[in-house]
Amino acid sequence: MSHNPHHLLVTGAAGFIGANFVHYWLDRYPMTRVIALDALTYAGNRANLTALDDHPGFQFVHGDILDSDLIERLLREERIDTLVHFAAESHVDRSIHGPDAFLKTNIEGTHSLLKAAKKVWLDDQGVEDHRFHHVSTDEVYGTLAAADPPFSESNQYLPNSPYAASKASSDHIVRSYHHTYGLNTTISNCSNNYGPYQFPEKLIPLIIAHCLDGKSLPIYGDGKQIRDWLYVDDHNRGIDLILHNGRIDNTYNIGGNNEWTNIDIVTLICELMDEHHPAGAPHRQLISYVRDRPGHDRRYAINAGKITNELGYAPAETFETGIRKTVQWYLDNEPWWRAIMDGSYREWIEKNYA
Q1: Count of alpha carbons within 13 Å of 292, Cβ hemisphere only?
Q2: CB 157 within 8 A of CB 108
Q3: For 124, how many CA atoms within 13 A lie in the half-sphere containing its CB?
Q4: pLDDT reported for residue 135
Q5: What's the start-to-end Cα distance of the chain, in Å?
Q6: Distance between CA 42 and CA 104 in Å, rounded?
Q7: Which residues fall within 8 angstroms of residue 134, CB to CB, at 6 or more apart?
Q8: Catalytic residue (one of 141, 163, 252, 353)
Q9: 142: DSSP letter
Q10: Domains, the chain, ranges and CATH?
Q11: H helix or E strand, kind and range, residue 168
């Protein structure tokens, strides 16, 4: 059954992927309305959305997904027909040092949204045409050996970190709300995203920033961990397809068909930074190896055949075009990430990469 979203509530809308999604959506569908909800914790940045403040279809709401009364009010007053749920604690390293916040946000927060959606859409209004889309991760599937086939939607869940376990739990809760109560739910599990507005604790923006500052480029273990990299707007295109034509109670893997080792990613960024910032060249001399983190999965890879075959999905960016766009964005927006890298952020870097 197709769905035509008109009024969207986007959670985690000031975070990396959420902010890119809001920009993508209003650029592509300017006549729709987007309520952007974010609690503005450490990774949520209001500045990511200020360019949209004058857009007639945009409204920002500072609020927490655990506030069920707020969610219910927004669903009613804004006549929301589509909820896109990005809000999550999402960094594995932080989940190792402080798992409680991950269980609270990723499990309880998702349940809070589901309860509100059920109450308004099903119990009070009996709205048949609605969507609750939950954005998850490939990390719920665990890790792959070098010769293993990529993760498909039928893979067993085997999460290896508190972050991955909290996302796996939330996936199951979302699914249960369809089977128990009839809520129209879909789930997407994506591979590693990169692009504009990414918080500089993640690998690619961290390496760019450290290259500019002449700081060491920390590599966990031997750097041979493999990830499938997906440009953020290619992820958003996949979600767009699912919202419009995805089958209810289905999971879709969104990947880039683009596996790289961490050390090769860092080396490539160093080469690009040599072009853009020759004063620091060769930047690869800054590479340093640090102790591997606990439970560090060796390889992730996504089989995106289902969304490709059913919905016509294909990434628009190659890694070569996407990474160049990303490096250029961070060079052009240095004040944005400089403002984020305050004392508490520096302490976090020292704690994780000592």
Answers
A1: 11
A2: no
A3: 12
A4: 98
A5: 52
A6: 15
A7: 85, 110, 170, 171, 174, 185, 186, 187, 188
A8: 163
A9: -
A10: 7-196+230-257+295-317 (3.40.50.720)
A11: helix 162-181
259 is catalytic: no
Q: For residue 90, what pLDDT is reported?
A: 67
pLDDT given for residue 267 in this prediction: 97
CA dist list (Å): 294 to 98, 161, 162, 228, 352: 13, 8, 11, 21, 11
What are the tokens at 46? 């209001």
Catalytic residue flag (residue 163): yes
Cross-sheet strand order for the sheet of 226-231: 192-194, 226-231, 259-261
CA-only gyration radius of the chain, Å: 20
Three-state DSSP state, 145: coil
**Token pair for 60:** 């920002």
* Pair type for strands 226-231 and 259-261: antiparallel
Are 198 and 320 in contact by the 8 Å Cβ rule? The answer is no
Angle between helices 319-332 and 262-276 (to 10 degrees): 50
287 forms beta bridges with 217
pLDDT along the chain (354 residues), means of 10: 95 97 98 97 90 98 97 98 92 72 93 98 95 96 93 95 94 98 98 93 92 93 92 98 98 94 96 94 94 83 96 95 96 91 53 52
Annotated active-site residue in 139, 153, 171, 228? 139
64, 89, 93, 138: the active-site residue:
138
Residue with structure tokens 């027909």?
81
Q: How far is CA 318 from CA 21, 156, 234, 257, in A?
A: 19, 29, 10, 10
The helices-and-strands tally (H runs, E runs) of the chain is: 13, 12
Measured between alpha carbons, how far is 33 from 129 in angstroms, rounded to an integer?
17
**Quick one: pLDDT at residue 348?**
44
- Is residue 123 flagged as an active site residue? no
- Length reported for the chain: 354
CA–CA gap between residue 317 and residue 322 (Å, rounded): 6
- Identify residue 125 by its one-letter amino acid code: Q
